[in-house]
Amino acid sequence: MNSLCNVxxxxxxxxxxxxxDISSPKLAAAISEAGGLGTIGCGTSTIAEVDRKxxxxxxxxxxxxxxxxxxxxxxxxxxxxxxxxxxxxxVISLSAGNPSPYIQRLHDHGIKVIxxxxxxxHAVKAEEAGADIVVAEGFEAAGINSPLExxxxxxxxxxxxxxxxxxxxxxxVGDGKGLAAALVLGAEGVQMGTRFIATQEMQAxxxxxxxxxxxxxxxxxxxxxxxxxxxxxxTNDYVATLEKREKEGMTLEEFNKATTEEQHKLGAIEGxxxxxxxxxxxxxxxxxxxxxxxxxxxxxxxxxxxxxxxxADLL
Length: 315
Description:
By secondary structure, the chain is α/β, with parallel strands linked by helices. It is built from 14 helices and twelve strands.
């Protein structure tokens, strides 16, 4: 059996990315019900907001799910750790910071820990600290990325050669061929964010979903490099304004104020492309429909099996 599926008690090796403040119980439940691992992202949400999301999610699925805590993004790390323990959340993913101080405490309560990393060094450290799984994220991925800017294609085989725990590939995966490629590279599964936005269960604005369907292969942008941040977004009027301001000498403080979760929600939930941005990975160029989560996951599994068979035949 796939060891990732075994560790997480899921049917298919497909994990949902955190999605920050725009994650929804409805989407996470649909992914878990379809055999993957749905995820609630904490982002910068208050404890009450996260509590409500977890409660809602538990009311509509009894299958395993995860909660993502972005350590250096939320001001409520300690409170969120206590909250997930209270709710007996089965899996926690820790990103955007050092997961080591929290792993043993979560393990003491029977919680599996996924560490989101972007280099071999950090993967090894996460394993040494006791992480059960690492998600290796290439900078093809949506949203906040590592300034190292390593690609998924090169990152996965290097990490799988240096750790013994299951490795999950993230960044640039949106179909069964991507899943098959990740497995060939040595990963045991994939994490997806952008592709799950363009599903019927995702409670994002229809403009966001349609932009993903319409996007070409060159429509994502990296913003924030000049101020020491790397964030991948889909181009729109607001992003064009940010790019102009960055070229003119935008400060880190100004960039952070212009890319909060409030502007994220304006674009993603309200569909306001003049005053808000929408995250997107490079995989947007592969998206051409808005299926149900069940349809997407089943299609991915069939595509992956066919891709692996075709690859074997070529050899």
